[in-house]
């Protein structure tokens, strides 16, 4: 099997797969939050190592995927301005807006640059004083501290030609929306280890108690994920609903308090629309009034209409774990990485992209 051939700790991972089979006496459905975990699960065939009654479903753990279409349209409009150098992570360039994507704007001559860190945008702004530099700030709590550092340093340096289009979102409110839905199937969660590295996991304790679901903070290696599933199944079998920390080598209960302090200094919490899921209260980050001069929506007041998603795209149901990518009629036919109907097919953390790239190989 592909897993055995390619994973260096296959023996340890298979140990946990066997342990899960030994303790599982009921069917259980567990959602992993992180798109990186989704890719590990599908790439290494982790789901195929599990007993048939243990089902893994994929949550809204791809920040590119949940960025609403009007934010994409706003990014496209700003990036099309001749005075602007638009900086973005590479994932965002292929995400479809209402009509085109950022890659199309770049092909038509727009100055769009792929960056690997928010601080790259600061260097570009310093090197191009006659241009307006805009950074597309997308991500969960994991990347928000680096964005906050960009704003802090730009403010300290008195930068006048740098602004940000901020679309950061927060994980716990989305988990609560999923658990509040009458259609949800989730009986336990694997929480994203990198998010908890920054934020800790104290906030998850109230969710576990309120909705009576076990939540296991989990890493990204296959052995991490299988151990996370084991701990989650063990709680389910015992009727428990607690927060456990599988990723103790990187995560503390209180998280990275220095990073949190910087985030709180730069950002305030606001409602935010999620693609395919609608508006979620207290689920987004926005620049505080103190740093409003770095807000690209104020520097470039472009009116954008809210646009409906493609009627063919089931990304909303996929992001909530109600549907699997292969259950979408358009999957791998009318929706491919070359011609995507939605963001989950083009993001490096998208569930549809994971199924498209890895599932056929693993089925061989």
From TrEMBL:
Keyword annotations of the record: Iron, Metal-binding
A Pfam family assignment: HypD
InterPro entries on file: Hyd_form_HypD, HypD_1, HypD_2_sf
GO molecular function: 4 iron, 4 sulfur cluster binding; carbon monoxide binding; iron ion binding
GO biological process, one term: protein maturation
Highest rank taxon of the organism: Bacteria
NCBIfam families attached to this UniProt entry: hypD
Family: Belongs to the HypD family.
Protein name: Hydrogenase formation protein HypD
Species in which this protein is naturally found: Oscillatoriales cyanobacterium SpSt-418
Lineage summary: Bacteria, Bacillati, Cyanobacteriota, Cyanophyceae, Oscillatoriophycideae
Gene: hypD
